[in-house]
Structure formats: C-alpha cells, structure tokens
Write a structure and sequence with these properties.
Shape: globular
Number of domains: 1
Bound molecules: zinc ion
Distance between the termini: 40 Å
Oligomer: single chain
CATH class: Alpha Beta
Number of helices: 11
Number of strands: 12
Largest sheet: 5 strands, parallel
CATH superfamily: Glycoside hydrolase/deacetylase
Structural class: alpha/beta
Strand content: 15-25%
C-alpha cells in the first residue's frame, strides 16, 4: 500500500509518536482578547492542561520508560513554568508552537519572523536550548514558515498532511525541513472538544469511540510498515477517562508481535534526515508554497465557473 515506507531502526515494523499541544490559556486570549479575563470557566478548563494533566502525562510515559513531545506556545511556557520544568525533568521534548498560538498564515512574513524568533528566545531561556521542532498553531503553516524556521536552525515541522510517512519540504530557494506529517483522525480536537467560548461543540461521546478511530490508524501503520502520529491536548485528553485509553494504546503497542518504535518527533526527524543524508532513503519532496495567487482558471477576468 505504501510506496515509500521508511526503514525504521532496530528492525521496528513501524514508528509511533505521541505529541501534546500544551496550548493552555493562550487560545482564549487570542480568541477573545477584549474580555478573556471574564471567561473564567473556560480559562480553568484550559489551565487544567499545564496544572493537572501535564504531570500526569509525564508520569504515564515514564511508567513505560518512553519519551514524548510537547508543543508549547512561548507565552504558555512563561505562564506555567512548573509544567516546563516537569517535562524537562522527564527528558521529554519541548517544541515550538508559536508565541501566543497566533495564526502564521494570517501574518506578514516580517511579523511571523518576529514572533517566531521571540518565542525561540523564550525556549532558550527556559529550556537551555533552541527548539528543533515546530507545529503551526491550528496547523496553519504559512507560505513563509518553512524559510523562517530553516533560517532559525529548525530540523522539522509537524503541521502538514501531504504523505503517510515523514517527507521532505523544500522551499523555492532550496531550504529544507523534514515534515513529521499530521493527520486529522489522530487529533483529539474533533473527537472531544466541547466549549462554547472556543466555538467548537463536538458531541460528547465515550473515549472508546475515539480510541477505535486512533487504533484503526495504528493498525494500518503497523500493517503497511508506516507511521502513526498522534496529536493530543493536555486539557482535553489528560483527563482520567481519556488518558486511560492512551495508556491502553501504549500497552497494546508494546505487546505487538513485531516491535513498534515509540519515540519523540525529534527522534523521528533526526532518523529520517540521516537516512536522506546517507542516501539510504528517498523521501517524497514537496516544494512549498504550492501556488502563487489565484490560479488562471479563477482569475478575476476569467470566464465564470459558477454563479
Ligand atoms: Zn495548539
């Protein structure tokens, strides 16, 4: 089924990563800057992430001697330094997730470069190093994101969905990033988020149903020697009823007949980059951005296609 499966290390049949977007309360300030302070209940819902869920998630992965990846907006890191410290203590990865969960594709290149760089400075100060991984808030990677990240020394992004396995993104000026590709079915937001202030009201269902979707994705990755990448939010999936299904998933993966490489995004990206550099693997290559402006068929003076 997969034309270009990645050779995973140590004879592993497939690779799996768990990533946690610790948005915390940045998103309510971005959604309602004028009166976020009055939305106390939603703020408590979001602050549950760093305060209650992050330590619990770290404990879970450490119980199985595994490392996981947290994508964090820099503002949320500064607001919740104890969560940063807990993650670092467990040796997990902290990657870049904007400054304030701002949308890169709605910003000018200069503004995006400024806030991306400013967030990198927070990472350096709080973690002692520059992040090598990035996920655009709401996956809204811009036409300029690749070059801005490459100029800041990043190795990978995890916002796009152009292949089943990690691939190579190249800008028109030849700058590169590894894409640790994402996938909507394995993002917990559409399964679970139910909040009026965030304008997202999914029907509340048992975690068993979300688990069925996740596990179908995993089974396909295992069968076709592919890649299983999951996106979770501590305030959403760090709750006991949902996190116990994450634990079930980990346990079941560890019991598979052939080994599954459960690791961080950074490890996946480093592995793929090395395979490419040593000519042991030829990834699919995507030139980003894909298009400029309107396509000719939809130019303002073209024959109308509709209406
Ligand atoms: Zn986010």
């Amino acid at each position: 089924m997969l034309k270009n499966p990645v050779p995973w290390p140590k004879g592993c049949r497939c690779a799996a990563t768990f990533s946690w977007d610790m948005d915390a309360d940045s998103i309510i300030h971005m959604a309602h800057p004028e009166d976020a302070n009055t939305r106390v209940s939603t703020m408590s819902y979001l602050r549950y992430g760093p305060k209650i869920a992050v330590p619990r998630i770290c404990d879970l992965f450490e119980k199985y001697k595994l490392k996981t990846t947290f994508f964090m907006p820099a503002w949320s890191m500064e607001e919740h330094p104890e969560a940063v410290e807990r993650v670092l203590k467990g040796g997990h990865e902290i990657a870049h997730h904007g400054y304030m969960h701002e949308l890169p594709n709605l910003n000018t290149r200069d503004r995006e470069a400024y806030w991306t760089g400013r967030a990198v400075e927070v990472h350096k100060r709080m973690t002692g190093k520059s992040p090598i991984g990035y996920r655009a808030p709401w996956y809204n990677f811009s036409r300029n994101t690749l070059e801005i990240l490459a100029d800041l020394g990043f190795l990978y992004d995890s916002s796009l969905m152009g292949d089943d396995v990690p691939y190579l993104m190249r800008s028109r000026t030849g700058k590169e990033l590894i894409e640790v590709s994402a996938n909507w079915p394995t993002d917990d937001w559409p399964h679970y988020v139910h909040n009026f202030d965030l304008d997202y009201m999914m029907t509340i269902q048992p975690p068993r149903l979300a688990h069925e979707v996740y596990w179908s994705e995993f089974e396909a990755a295992y069968e076709y020697k592919g890649f299983f990448m999951t996106t979770w939010h501590p305030f959403v999936s760090g709750r006991p009823s949902r996190l116990r299904y994450v634990e079930k998933m980990i346990k079941d993966m560890l019991k598979m007949k052939q080994k599954v490489w459960i690791t961080t995004h950074a490890d996946i990206a480093k592995h793929v980059r090395k395979l490419i550099d040593t000519k042991k693997y030829k990834p699919s290559v995507h030139t980003i951005p894909y298009k400029d402006g309107r396509i000719p068929e939809l130019a303002e003076d073209a024959q109308p296609l509709r209406g």
